[in-house]
Amino acid sequence: MHFSHLNTAAGILRLYGGEEPFHHFIKDYFRQHKKHGSKDRKRISGLCYAYFRLGPSFPGTTMEEKILLGLFLCAVRPDELLENLRPGWNAAVQQPLKDKCAVAGVAYEALTIFPFTDALSETIDKETFAHAHLQQPDLFIRLRPGYEKKVLEKLDKAGEAWRRLDETCIAFSNAAKIDTLLELDKEAVVQDYSSQRVGAFLQSAVDSSQQPIRDVWDCCAASGGKSILAKDMLGDIRLTVSDVRKPILVNLEKRFSAAGIKKYKSMVLDLAKMEPAGLSAQVLAKAGSSFDLIIADVPCSGSGTWGRTPESLSFFKPAEIDRYQQLQKQIVSNALPLLKKGRCFLYITCSVFKKENEDMAAFIEENGDLRLLRMETLKGYDKKADTMFAALFVNE
After folding, report:
1. Binning pLDDT at 50, 70 and 90, where does residue 1 land?
2. Which DSSP string corresponds to 297-338?
3. What is residue 369's DSSP assignment?
4. CATH number of 139-190
5. What average pLDDT score do residues 319-336 get?
6. What's the CATH fold of domain 194-395?
């Protein structure tokens, strides 16, 4: 059985070309090959992801050997497959990474897990960030106002293991079935720790404003997490959301309903392609006003989240960084004319690349009347969380 799992994982990896997210690919594979039971599917998937977590490290190694290396270097407790195939490795799974490399007979320096370190934001510790990809990030929830006590009581009653990072943030193992314990979006929102820290930027926007923030536009709304956060923090706002994809907004509508957000305006907009004048007219006609706060959680490389999709370590093309930056420039340039004077623009990515982060912050300052109020790389790699970037500007 052990060799069967290893060989099946290697066969799947040889079929995969990176054209789609791996979790979609392997789900389709198992749908077509129904002989694998649930435990087999979980084991085979785990082996594939252990392989991906090494990125392009050890290029001369066979597929099967690299899978075992990945399993060993990622493991934090003894593993049955390692015990059967590499018992010496299995005895060393809890040793430091350098020692594990020595046990496996590979050079620690050959761990080129994240191959794009030269493109990273300067504030990121390159080695710590790269090695963080060996572990799957945790699952995080944000407690919503008024539900803190109720959620904690439910968690204590269920006996689910969790840790609290701050007053509203709770972390779980990624395998936790919290949807069976909580009323998600009503009582708590699934939201990464670093994403929750964007709340500090919203507070800075409040602190910098002479008047209350009422009209808010989440211009790249996606699943609506930042909108729910803004609603929870800012209170009675007139919310407008937009996204380029209508199905996303349909799902957002369901999520808002669960969250109790009923009064908002929604638009399908491609901010990267519309002419600024036409876009402004369309948004103003729908929203009825320009905005006190624009939240631009822009499309990006997603490089700060690759701990969740480690196949990107092997298949991402560096040229995509420039493509995303151009997209970000277009979106920002089209959105800014709708920002009121004296009001705030919040730029967000889940990228770790300087071109998408600090360079874009400089672009925003240089190409408008905006002044940077606050900028930070929201590091999550030391907390089993994503890494993000946020920059807050005021329109002077």
Report:
1. low
2. E-----GGGTTTSTTHHHH--THHHHHHHHHHHHHHHHHGGG
3. S
4. 3.30.70
5. 96
6. Rossmann fold (3.40.50)
